[in-house]
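Lab manual, section 2.4: Encoding a predicted structure.

Procedure: take the sequence of the chain (564 residues), apply the prediction step described in section 2.3, and record the output as structure tokens. A sample record is shown.
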Amino acid sequence: MADRENRIHPFIPKLVDQYEQRKVDRREFLRTSTLLGLSAATAYGIVGRIDGPGFVPQARAQDATPRKGGIVRVSIRIPDLSTPHIFSWVYDSNSVRQCNDYLTRTGVDNITVPWLLENWEASDDLKTWTLRLRKDVKWSNGEQFVADHAIWNLKHMLDPATGSSVLGLFSGFLVEEKDTGQKDADGNPVMTTDYWDANAIEKKDDFTIVLNGKGPQMGVPENLFHYPAFMLWPEDNGKWGVGSPGTGPFEPTVIETGKRAVFKAREGYWGEGPYLDELHFVDHGDDASAQVAAMASRQADGMYEASVTQYEVLKQMPHLELYQVTSAQTGVARVHPIKPFDDARVRKALRLAIDTPKLLQLAHLNIGAPGEHHHVAPVHPEYADIGLMQQDIDGAKKLLADAGYPDGIEAEISCKQDPAWELIAVQAMTEMWKQAGINVKINVMPSSAYWDNWTKVPFGFTAWTHRPLGVMVLGLAYRTGVPWNESHWSNRKFDELLSVAEGILDVEERRQAMVPIEELMNEEGPAVIPLWRGMFTFWDKKVGGFQQHPTSYIFGEQLYLNEA
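Recorded output:
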């Protein structure tokens, strides 16, 4: 911002002091300073001044001049890709990501930068965000990308009728819960969401949008890279497929659900790359051995993610490179608030029966960290270390007895068999629950069947991916009434505490605000979280430009072949 208007957000000087005193680390300094509008070059320049001549900015891992041409084939699931704004899984988005961009991008370093935006500007109170679009972006049909296109997409994602999870990230900021005046079958008010103000999303000119929030929100740039937040061609009305215009580096030429997707490099892409002629995604199904065979025979050049059951076999293949990164990816065993889980004591008993260090060993080869049931991971900047909940079988039994279940409870948990660690984790948890008198049967569903019903099963195990901020995860998964609140949990105190934390820019202050949130989740929340995953995958050494993203995103325009 200083480069553009000689104005620096008032928090920047304090942030520089905090970095000089090592109260925030390098990643958090870069994340927050760029969030507040400093260019990446300026932010890195400040770090270089403070850290001295030994500092080397993280560069993209590629040759100086990547060779052009060729095809790279990736093993990844290909579900129905027709409605990107309501995607629930990362691999869905990896297909559309090759063809349609976002307003921002969060890189492998957890730092968010402008993408289709030229820059952004936050007001001092974080209630107003000015988004300025690049002027050199054209859709693949030749039309220029303008503010009307971005506003249509934002409004489509925030329309409750769409059912997009983006709604959960902007609740309390751009939209709020409102009473429809109707009653449900039990006599309770039927609620919906609507803009808190008619000018919540305001067009200033063809390349400038202003978000006018009800309260402060420090995570707007990160929220704009939430994986369903694509910029889609408005005339397609939220649909996507072969022939859909996009602003990205590739165009979709073949989409076959459950089989394959083919992306061809487009002419006139505004950014760097692509280097490949084509990028092919191939669906090898739930069978982990089929993926291994494809990698061994070099019919696939890379994998979306590798499974723990594949790790040792793939590691022995000399033509493959292992990529690994720390993340907040996890799986959540969550319950709906119906008997016996309508009682917070029963929900806490589920947690007390679990030995998370043992689960990390059994289900994920000790790659990662023991889970914490409040769903805020150590890699999140606002993570507050309130201590790991230890296994306490006697404590779990007492809670069940106090709740009126002295002889224990019976239940059934639904999960899917792919990837393998999920079923292993569920099987291990059921053995631990059994010690406390919690007898849980396992319903293993085909992946596609679970995808269709993941918010509906009363007791389920769902994989959740990494987000750069802990408040993002909590807003998506546990805020009252949002589309991805799969547990149907509603706690007004939690909602209030979360809205406060979302508006705190100072990471030290936000960390303190997270303490009561994490404690509340441990005491009353709906979830058991067995582990934090260390993400890993394997790619053929002939492929350059790949980096393991903590959210397992694939950026096809960065890929190239370093051998013919």
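Check your result against the sample. The radius of gyration is 23 Å.
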